[in-house]
Amino acid sequence: MEPKINFGLVGAGSIAQAYVQAFGTCKNAQLVAVADIRFDAAKTLAAKLGCQSYDSYQAMAESEKLDAVIICTPPITHPEISLYFIDRKIHVLSEKPFSIDSKSAKTMLDSAKKAGVKLTMASKFRYVEDVIKARNIVNSGILGEIVLFENAFTARVDMTCRWNSNPKVSGGGVLIDNGTHSVDIMRYFLGPLAEVHVVEGKRIQGLPVEDTVRIFVTSTRGVTGNIDLSWSINKDLDYYIRIYGSLGTISIGWKESKYRQSTSSDWIVFGKGYDKVQAFGSQIENFAKAIQGEESLLITSQDALASVEVIEAAYAAMNQNHWMAVAQETNASQRLNGAKQLLELSKV
Could you tell me which of 230, 283, 224, 255 has the C-alpha nearest to residue 96? Predict the structure, then answer.
């Protein structure tokens, strides 16, 4: 059995708490240090697993033998911190949003490729067991052709004093914050996204950023989707994803997941809902095994970049009030289709 991958954690905020809890379930990874400019926060969090604490990520890197780090700091800091560790040949798992613009995201990914290290985006919902099972059910074809995808992440949360609503730090509001999850999930089920349009709702909290939006999307395969995001309303839905096919419907819920074929009146339950610790633990394990060469990354570098590019297009669509093409996604899909056509012609 290979030695466990030694992880450092940069940032000791709320999302870092979930990682610390998840590390207790991991077989291939262990947390050896936590760094935060708020040293008391780092010390308190590190004490939960009996690991070291530091008042800067630089001090942590100089003192610890790290294989990888997880970055849990505000988005504006992701490029600088990622590049620091990439230069030291340390693998990087960066929390979402991966970056606030595609230019810096490409710099990060290019640097990682040259350095020969793993770099990708953390996106917990990709690792939820029900989401993975749902994708297998959709891909099996028993629900027919997919026609409509729906997603909602809405909850009443006071954001007036949080960095997430400071555009200089976060890059935007609920669109980039919750929307990055939505975009990644949608791409997981539908593939590349071709066009996006965003309508902003009424601002309730007096924030300098959007607190409610509705996103409309068309995939390169012609499937439509809509996403509701809000910090100011709660839709009180039992599910956060619903996918409608020509032969049935599937719902992925917080406490239960199920599907029903159009030929039946009965729902078939296939999952027990959202398990946060399981999702974070599986995410860490996948990254650790990818470093060890035992698995492929579930979220690739292209997925990380695409998430940034789609959100960029979404902000442009919201600000200009019209549909916006996601150029890189569309071009990539066209290149793939072209390659498939050439392959088919070569068989003739």
Answer: 283
Euclidean distance between the first and the last CA atom of the chain, given in angstroms as a whole number = 48
Q: Among candidates 160, 336, 289, 285, which has minimal Cα distance to 231?
A: 160
Q: Which residues on adjacent β-strands are paired with residue 212?
A: 230
Maximum Cα–Cα distance across the chain: 68
Contact residues for 220 (Cβ-Cβ < 8 A; gap 6+): 191, 192, 193, 194, 329, 330, 333
HSE (side-chain half, CA atoms, 13 Å) at 345: 6
Query: What CA–CA distances, in Å, run from 262 to 141, 197, 247, 258?
Result: 13, 30, 5, 13
Alpha carbons within 13 A on the beta-carbon side of 109: 18
Average the pLDDT over 24-31 and give the result.
96
pLDDT exceeds cutoff 50 at 340: no
For residue 347, pLDDT over 60 is answered with no
